[in-house]
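Colleagues,

For the teaching module next term, I've prepared a clean inverse folding example: a structure given as tokens, and then the sequence designed for it. I'd like students to try predicting residues themselves before seeing the answer, so please don't circulate the second half yet.
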């Protein structure tokens, strides 16, 4: 990610969270955070707890974000070129990562941050958006000129989820599945993620649209998605698990051959107990490392309202 891309990402976040842009140039932006962004970025839980308890009008912080990395010139930032490795790891950068800028004319203090790929602030933006985007509600935008402008188009709610399946032993393989289920009919679409990529989505309900009644609860729909994915996993090739089990037994046999003679030759009960404890610890580590297992987790999910009924 170069400086131009980092700037575009940061500005998109500020716009999405309705922050107030005070000034902007190709190399920086001065912004007064919205309450939503301030809660997410400034680490002031006691202040926001006070605001919530007392109903006080919040005073959010003001930042100046510079989009040239330490050691990078404004010309390099404008051209979108990435900083050299030397500049990223320079022990004496031209400016610290965060510092206080001069006061604005109204006396508001401004905090400066460098925002570039690898910076603390951009990493925080990534994590904030990742957490905020774990559950979403979106609507498909109707195509222009489609349908009767005086009529109402039916939309069906779909529960879509991105699953991560991990095949683990002394090696690890991960697979991602984006599947969805109609909350009206229970139909499951195993290519739901690809379907969403081809659909323009909006967080607002479009005009001339009505939502059909759901026939499934969210809990039941998620259970059906998990069951469908479990059936699919059970049909996969599990030779890797058989091979991992063989390696586990081989390693445990080596551990037995090493520790058991030592235990038998122990001169005192204290030595025998100490060696036995190391033996059990090592056997437990081998078992955890090599024992084959499959884990299923949800990366993110959402309710997607799409045209028609299936």
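(Answer key — instructors only)
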């Amino acid at each position: 990610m170069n400086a131009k891309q980092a700037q575009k990402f940061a500005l998109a976040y500020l716009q999405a969270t309705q922050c107030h842009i005070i000034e902007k140039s190709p190399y920086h932006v001065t912004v007064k955070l919205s309450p939503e962004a301030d809660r997410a970025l400034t680490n002031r839980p006691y202040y926001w707890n006070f605001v919530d308890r007392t109903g006080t009008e919040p005073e959010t912080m003001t930042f100046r974000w510079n989009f040239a990395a330490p050691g990078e010139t404004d010309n390099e930032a404008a051209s979108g070129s990435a900083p050299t490795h030397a500049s990223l790891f320079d022990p004496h950068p031209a400016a610290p990562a965060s510092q206080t800028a001069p006061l604005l004319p109204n006396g508001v203090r401004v905090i400066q941050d460098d925002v570039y790929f690898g910076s603390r602030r951009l990493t925080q933006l990534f994590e904030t958006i990742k957490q905020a985007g774990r559950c979403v509600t979106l609507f498909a935008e109707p195509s222009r000129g489609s349908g009767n402008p005086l009529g109402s188009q039916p939309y069906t709610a779909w529960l879509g989820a991105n699953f991560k399946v991990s095949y683990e032993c002394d090696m690890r393989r991960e697979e991602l599945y984006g599947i969805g289920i109609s909350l009206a009919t229970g139909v499951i679409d195993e290519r739901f993620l690809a379907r969403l990529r081809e659909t323009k989505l909006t967080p607002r309900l479009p005009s001339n649209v009505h939502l059909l009644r759901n026939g499934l609860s969210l809990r039941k729909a998620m259970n059906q998605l998990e069951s469908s994915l479990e059936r699919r996993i059970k049909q996969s090739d599990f030779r890797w698990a058989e091979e991992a089990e063989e390696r586990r037994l081989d390693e445990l046999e080596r551990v037995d051959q090493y520790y058991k003679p030592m235990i038998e030759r122990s001169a005192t009960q204290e030595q025998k107990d100490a060696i036995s404890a190391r033996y059990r610890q090592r056997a437990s580590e081998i078992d955890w490392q090599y024992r084959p297992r499959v884990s299923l987790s949800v990366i993110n999910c959402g309710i997607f309202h799409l045209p028609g009924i299936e």
